[in-house]
Design a protein that fits this description.
homodimer; mainly alpha; 124 residues; 3 strands; disordered N terminus; DNA-binding
DNA sequence: TTGACATATTCCAATATGGGCATATGATCC
DNA sequence: GGATCATATGCCCATATTGGAATATGTCAA
């Protein structure tokens, strides 16, 4: 009873198979059977995963005769991308990043893409 | 027994409180007590969340006397950012389409028959 | 209609998760 | 040493989640 059951995209995406499904459905819409075949999952399992994804609008469905065509709704992934992107400023001051950038700068044209990293220091 | 228990960052991050903790610890390292106070969570609960986060390297710890100073390891968030970023091209397209349709609707009949490209009928 | 096909749902068992509470560990100070 | 602060862990309970198998629903074809 910790939260509404499966009510957000973060939870839906936590499952590796659901991520695989989203990857698979990103390029083009596909019937369920294609997912079953491509990812080698049991059909009921795929249907269940698709339901979870549908409930948070990560996929959209369309009926085509007796088949259901699913596709990824990439827009629903944006909030996650934005959340994680908020940490971007912190990870580019990691040591190995600095080193990698230094090497890249060194190797490439020294025409000016160089910026000093943010010397932000916050203890409290 | 669906997957290794809490073995990846996606699962760890699915919990809203853990995201809050990561946000809080991104700026500076903090002792556990600060998290308890700031997020108004029970102390054992915080410790447990921190453990989950530590196990997937989303936070790092350092001992300072009798306190433990935690901080977010932003680098561990990058894989998620990159995964979600792979859908970027699709949501650009989505935005473009929405914008285009909005403009079209605006231009033609602002009260009248626009056609939904996706007659949504779900629920059961 | 019946039958075949595609997908969804239900039931079940196993397991994972989170909260609350009590308690254990670890470190400092006397 | 003992007392105390800061944090971690163990236990119990309620709920969530997943897979598997069986079955139900919906659609097409004849």
């Amino acid at each position: 009873m910790t939260r509404a059951p499966g009510s957000d995209a973060f939870h839906a995406v936590a499952e590796p198979r659901r991520r695989a499904i989203l990857d698979f459905l990103a390029v083009a819409e596909r019937p369920v059977g294609d997912i079953v075949t491509a990812l080698r999952l049991a059909q009921p399992s795929v249907s269940k995963h698709l339901r979870v994804l549908r409930e948070v609008d990560l996929v959209r469905v369309r009926r085509d005769g007796r088949r259901m065509l699913y596709r990824t709704n990439a827009d629903a992934i944006r909030p996650m991308h934005e959340w994680s992107g908020a940490f971007e400023r912190y990870w580019h001051q990691q040591l190995h990043r600095i080193k990698a950038r230094a090497e890249a700068t060194f190797r490439s044209a020294p025409g000016g893409g160089d910026q000093p990293d943010k010397p932000k220091k916050s203890s409290r």
